[in-house]
């Protein structure tokens, strides 16, 4: 394994571990994971983050973990967001960790979709006017306090493009124009957010647009003039027929092979400066945790 102290290229690649769970609203989690007690289900994203750490190869460069409290949220909902104070504190901590390491590239393991906000805007500040965002997700994540879907994780693209919570946005290193953001795999949304796509100038690619080839997306990327790209991957993009990886089962998404091809083609066409894996909700692991918790000598 390369030593980061001897390999400057490795040392400039930060792995950011961020098991944030507060961004998913309690009502949404209760609806989509009714088989678990709510306090267990809400923290399922932290389990998902630990599983990602276990299955990925060890990172030879620096790794930083954003502190995430496990206490039950007590703050009132503000503009559709629970635990605004806690989430803001995590955002500030994440940005501070990134600034401390000053990386050229960041891999983020989450956590809800909102964990992309800090690393993507940090890369936008590091490479001004030269970062495009590929947001691979069944959902657009362009909600605001005025739209119908609550939960900060549904507002991540809004934050990145400068349309998010005004107070939280003051902490961002930069924003990225919506014209340099492509929503890839989009095919499930709440109707009142859809006008934001045209109003803000976002590009969209439904799964069927990319079934056979990545070329439509690559053409869009080339047209942005950006040489660098940040890739967000919400695991719920994978068609539910292949297995439910996220909190909800979303049919008709991209296949595993199609996402793999997109990743390969994007890496061949641009410099990838950030990648996020988000929204992994490992139901079988959480169920096993519950079983093991009751076995003598295992959990205590």
Notes on the structure:
There is one protein chain. The chain is of the alpha/beta class. The chain has a single domain (8-293), classed as Arginase, Chain A, CATH 3.40.800.10. It contains twelve helices and eight strands. It has helices at 8-11, 26-32, 38-42, 44-55, 84-101, 117-126, 156-160, 166-169, 195-200, 215-224, 256-269, 283-293, and strands at 13-18, 63-65, 105-110, 131-136, 181-184, 203-205, 228-234, 271-278. The protein has an eight-stranded parallel β-sheet with strand order 2-1-3-8-7-4-5-6, with helices on both faces. It is globular. The two termini are 35 Å apart. The mean pLDDT is 94.
Reconstruct the topology from this structure.
Layout: H1 8-11, E1 13-18, H2 26-32, H3 38-42, H4 44-55, E2 63-65, H5 84-101, E3 105-110, H6 117-126, E4 131-136, H7 156-160, H8 166-169, E5 181-184, H9 195-200, E6 203-205, H10 215-224, E7 228-234, H11 256-269, E8 271-278, H12 283-293
Helix pairs in contact: 5-6
